[in-house]
Write a sequence for this structure.
């Protein structure tokens, strides 16, 4: 059983501190450099970008996680520190060194993350003075959430408290990302803190599961990035009986919830989004089939533009499913748009198109349900529509 | 050796006739129903959509091609005749029957194609009178090109004459498609005629190769359709020595040229396109790697929007390559945008960004060259940019 904490964030978890400054990396006068710190060394699980081109902070953080432990994260926005060869690695290493010195911890216990434009070197003089100026604080979580934003309109953060019989613990999370959002990660950073005592191996399994059920089921524009990183830090200060795969169901559910809520916040904040799309695929032969079909629908440019135009064009939904290799039978498929059945057992229904158009226009979200009627598995994916505003934002990003 | 025929089209090939009418399937008063006819029975090669959801005309044409022969194609625009279960198949069959009766040929020798909105039944009374009214003619090729257009702005057609020593033959082609254009076919129809005598097996091999090097290397918006069909009809009336895989190099080159030119016309005519993108990937380990990388770049929404905004954002090109599984080494990659080197051996160059922006703005096409420096294979793919206009067109297609 878990409860949402009001105004909760990554430092709502005991033992975690954060702080941020405007170091001058971004041109606008907004926070752009932050540190997350835990008073004890943490077990860490991590998931990184699947892109073959990996940014320097990703390469360095993977190295620092060879023992799966860390005590701090230093993160900047405004510059991705990617595709800069040796210079990029040297700069990421210096960010870690400066942070380790400031916090009097080992450099190997510092993780580094960067987000922003690819190919521009970090302004290291600004990073140096910025790291020096950061004041970490028990209430700094929200500042960190602000500091990692790029084209995000809103900070995205959450914290929950889990009660498991005799003991309780918290999970806090923060994320950024509003473009290049696609299954198998995106231009996203996500940091998650917990004071729960969790078995090291299970911590990674639980994070993999949570990512598969959240960040890998959202789509904005089909691109993944060089910098994607999800870090889950477990301090163990809650002193609960160690959670492992046998006892971990509650922890897994709570972690899924944190990741799903953060994933949905990312889609709601997607570049140029006017409509949030939720797609549920039911009665698939396998979970993988259900997920693939739901993702395919969310990823289709034609479904996205139809959503933007409040056009109940169910043919595009069928086309998107048909492009996958999932098991299907056209004559068994049912499709519902905003709860109205538009296609039944392989044939269009006589639905009132004008009425549905009005319903779609009035609804803030678009809800698509596809029943494949060939199995028993179900999955939900989330996506954004595709608007003229998306094009406007992305046609001049590097200016 | 081949020559382009001036104002050439599908009936520039001896023995082929065509005609079209406005039957009233489309709301606008434009040609929407056409017939292609050959005075002799042809050998036929065909490639169909890879989408699991196949429209009725695709299912019927596949059946009629069980002997790889045909003598006519009947085609309509304005209605895809897809996702309509038994009714769809019955209507496609009636189209074939009416055409066979009109031309006094066997119904099995009639191929059927439809393009337009999915899910609306064909207005069969209009189809009946339309087929009756069509007058086929030696100069009807251009009319057919007009009649298969949907959101296309321009008809797309070509014909070439091939001289192979002692004999000559012609190849004519027509295509439609301007949205849902993606690797592995698209919402596209393409009909190709030739009077060359070609071995039946080699005819299919040659078409597969030509499609792989043309239509499968273009991208507009990542969606494939239920109706994609490419038909290649060979009448054999040129009386040349039968072309087979041993002697077929010249024929293959000529067929590739026809398909590549038609594919490029499709991208130039893409919905909302303001800029044509040509991507060449060089020095890849394999041809498949080169093609995959070139396609990935053409398919990236972020590359497309950057192209639209004349933004030399090479980071997005790298990200698109990195999303593939091709063999690469970041430190070996060179990138050129409109012939200016922006990334060399894994590092950004000191190119003049403002100058390149001016060049990009002045150029009608965008040319991207990526040199992987890990092998000897090369491929080119073509795509469109992504504009606000694309979104506008596709947000209200079914209205």
């Amino acid at each position: 059983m878990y409860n949402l904490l009001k105004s909760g964030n990554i430092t709502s978890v005991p033992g975690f501190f954060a702080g941020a400054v405007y170091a001058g990396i971004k041109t606008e006068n907004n926070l752009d450099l932050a540190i997350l710190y835990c008073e004890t060394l943490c077990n860490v699980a991590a998931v990184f970008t699947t892109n073959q081109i990996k940014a320097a902070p990703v390469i360095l953080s993977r190295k620092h996680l060879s023992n799966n432990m860390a005590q701090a994260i230093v993160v900047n926005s405004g510059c991705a520190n990617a595709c800069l060869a040796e210079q990029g690695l040297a700069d990421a290493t210096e960010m870690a060194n400066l942070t380790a010195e400031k916090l009097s911890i080992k450099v190997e216990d510092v993780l580094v993350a960067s987000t922003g434009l690819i190919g521009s070197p970090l302004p290291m003089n600004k990073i140096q003075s910025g790291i020096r100026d950061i004041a970490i604080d028990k209430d700094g979580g929200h500042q960190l959430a602000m500091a990692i934003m790029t084209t995000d309109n809103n900070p995205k953060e959450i914290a929950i408290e889990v009660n498991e019989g005799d003991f309780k613990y918290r999970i806090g999370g923060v994320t950024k990302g509003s473009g290049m959002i696609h299954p198998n990660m995106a231009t996203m950073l996500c940091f998650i803190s917990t004071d729960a005592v969790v078995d090291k191996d299970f911590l990674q399994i639980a994070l993999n599961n949570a990512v598969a059920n959240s960040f890998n089921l959202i789509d904005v524009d089909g691109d993944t990035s060089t910098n994607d990183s999800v870090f889950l830090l477990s301090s163990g200060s809650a002193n609960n009986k160690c959670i492992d795969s046998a006892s971990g169901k509650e922890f897994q559910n709570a972690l899924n919830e944190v990741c799903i809520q953060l994933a949905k916040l990312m889609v709601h904040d997607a570049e140029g989004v006017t409509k949030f799309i939720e797609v549920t695929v039911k009665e698939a032969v396998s979970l993988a089939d259900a997920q693939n079909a739901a993702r395919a629908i969310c990823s289709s440019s034609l479904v996205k533009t139809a959503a933007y135009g409040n056009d109940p064009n169910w043919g595009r939904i069928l086309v998107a499913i048909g492009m996958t290799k999932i098991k299907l039978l056209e004559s068994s498929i049912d499709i519902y748009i905003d709860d109205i059945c538009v296609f039944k057992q392989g044939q269009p229904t006589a639905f009132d198109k004008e009425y549905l158009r009005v319903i779609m226009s009035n609804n803030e979200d678009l809800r698509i349900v596809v029943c494949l009627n060939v199995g028993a598995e179900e999955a939900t994916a989330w996506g954004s529509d595709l608007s003229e505003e998306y094009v406007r934002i992305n046609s001049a990003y590097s200016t």
Summary: The two ends of chain B are 48 Å apart (CA to CA).
